[in-house]
Amino acid sequence: MEKVELGRRAYARGVRLAAFETIDSTNDEARRRAEAGDPGPLWIVAARQTKGRGRLGRSWSSLEGNLHASLLLSGFGAPAIAPQLGFVAGLATIAALIEITGAPHRLALKWPNDVLLDGAKLAGVLLEGAQPAHPAAPFACIIGVGVNCAAAPEGLPYPASDLSRLSAPTNAGALFACLSDHMEETLQLWSSGAGFPALRERWLTYAAGLGEEIEARLPGETLRGRFETIDRDGRLIISAEGGRRAIEAGDIFLPALAARPEPERRP
Q1: Which residue, 34, 155, 231, 253, has fewest beta-carbon neighbours within 10 Å?
Q2: What CDD domains is this protein classified in (predicted)?
């Protein structure tokens, strides 16, 4: 495994790091530690996962050279505001990628927190809660981040990409150090929910498909309409036949992006 270190800002603020060559899932390891009483902040990073997963229990391909990391947090406030941490993570991830690659015009955020490269999925975030065994311990949140640094999985229901398509090569270790610092900066701006309005505005500046026709696949229905905005709670607002709808969870597809020709891979 290549060397993995925290960024200077994260290290100075007392964030800890546990790195593994192989693990079942970085989110699962973070959960085990939370349930054992570790309050975080703690990053779990692994070169390889044997049981990586994404949203809704889907398998997450853990290819060699990619970034697999999870942050354990607690004491951030009421469990009700925990979903906002998904937007925090998405913003921190795209900020780190912009700094590392210098290609802001090719990166975007797909609601709620996927990062796209030229319209194809580059990174994803999995947010999970964990309740420590001791009833007096604070509720914990686990923020899993996966980034396709060296390779993208195949056979997915959506296009995927990786950082090898950019001219500047980026390894997982360098990206993680940058991500850990941007996560600290973004968490500070979020300020346990007090700064979410400002983060919402920042998120919208990176939003893929904003103002365009999108497709939302929800339990029991598929909704098509114009992506208007996200509201103060982070719900996606879509203008569809029959009026405006607020979506709390679902799979979002961007037909306009999918129709664009794929850029050539850089040597």
Answers
A1: 155
A2: BPL
